[in-house]
Fold each of these.
Amino acid sequence: MALSRRGFLAATGFVAAGTALSGGAVPAFALAPMAGAPIPGAIRRKVGSVEVTALLDGYIDMPPDFLVGADGATVAALASAAHQSPGPRRTPVNAYLVNLGDRLVLVDAGTSTSMGPTLGQLPAALAAAGVGPAQVDTVLITHMHPDHIAGALTPTGQALFPNAELVVTEADYVFWHDDSVMNQAPSEFRSFFLGARNAAAAYAGRLRRIAGEGQAVGSIRSVPLPGHTPGHAGFVVESGGEALLIWADTVHLATYQFARPDWSMSFDVDPQQAAQTRRRIFDRAAADRVMVAGMHMPFPGFGHVVREGSEYRFVPAEWPYAL
Ligand SMILES: [Zn+2]
């Protein structure tokens, strides 16, 4: 005899459960409250024998009006092509933990409480990665903006990393400590200067300043990427024939800046230089086929750059299924 659909459901228990509900007897379902929050962001992959863990501090909603020289029609077209609205883009703040084997290096430190409640999750992400602040040996700072250095401090302004040296670039240190620059800057940027100074002061005695292209710590090399700030730098992790370029704030809005690399951000210290640097590093990453990661690239930010004529395209790396 052919089994009817109802007969099949009854035989497999689906109808029985419904009957029990309508018959008054309440089955004992497990209580599963909604979490209401994402799981802390931490994704680990390997570069040769080095482990690199992307850590998510949180997000900023960044309007496309921040793009210098952008026109509405192109913004709308690029947003549509990416299946996004042309309104503010939810832009992450990432940091990267690099385990060299003999040293734990954190590249950038997130925001702490300096930029509001959608951020400040780096300590939770670090804990999810199994690391406490006392284990970090070196904090490398790509540039001294608050979304990169403020997280080196606790909410009360103490050094969060009790055993770490803090490494900043000479050009950024000089720029953010220059009173004449601060006094000429728009008032809304004054907190950037004070924040940079507070972080440097909290690490007095274990602050190291680096300049140019060369060794930053262990096998990690620094690469000057000036424009966003004067001392804005990337860091190259190299091991076993593989490389990762952590390019800091080369890109703030991935939806737009790969197709239009000349569109800099209104808060770049030198937007024109930032655009030149962006094209140069896009070309180098594309030609060398090197993996990149960035502090405002869609989390976890790993991927490759492809050149297409005068434009570029980002190819996100797949989930690292194994290490
Ligand atoms: Zn930034």
Amino acid sequence: MGLANDKSSFDLDLFRKQLQYPNWYIRLSDFLNTKVFPIEDNPEIKTERHIFYDLVTQMLEENLISLAKEGPNFDKERKPIDTIVIHHSDEDPHMKLDKLSAIGFIRQYGSNYLKGEVNGNNVKGQPVWSGHFRNGKMVFFAYHHIVFPNGKNKRLLEDKYIGWQSGDWDINTRSVAIVLAGDYKHKSPQDNQINAVVDIIKQNYPFVSLGRIFGHREINPKTTCPGDQFIGGWKNTLLEAARTK
Ligand SMILES: [Zn+2]
């Protein structure tokens, strides 16, 4: 991969070896718990995190990570959709979708498999299974739709799938997640990106009441997603456009 490996704490070859085991998340738990799961803006940690993300992206593409051939039906509690949760990706908006799926594989699935139990299913040490497929490939997206800054969008998960996205399982079972590609921690998206979100809602979920459109942080107070300009700011722009369009 031609990646620098000049940090004693960061042995890329060791990671590559461990990732080939079905229980990679247990083998790498120290690294995951200190450098990956807690999102910090420390530039050195962020760089290491992304080197790791890129390694996993590449290894998933090359089928070098053991995935389960079958597994529990994590979608059996899917309910009629009555809620929409808005996120930002908090990453480069032009990131490849394969990398976004790899990040979900590490962050959502890795952390839940590390706990050993997912919704009453014992998954300890098991190879990861999502049961979610896109173009014939198992995917690990947390979100159903992604909207780019130019207003284009892509479908990531079918609505019959539960996205592991809000931090609240009941909300996950009854919601769809729309993610704005980009880092909106301290700024608002442009109107065309917001309008594209509104178009998705109008076209796919006209039955969801405006009062059931939430930012991730309104569901889970531990996160700042989709940024500090959402509540009282671009959430109003979004709701106004949804009301009048
Ligand atoms: Zn979020």
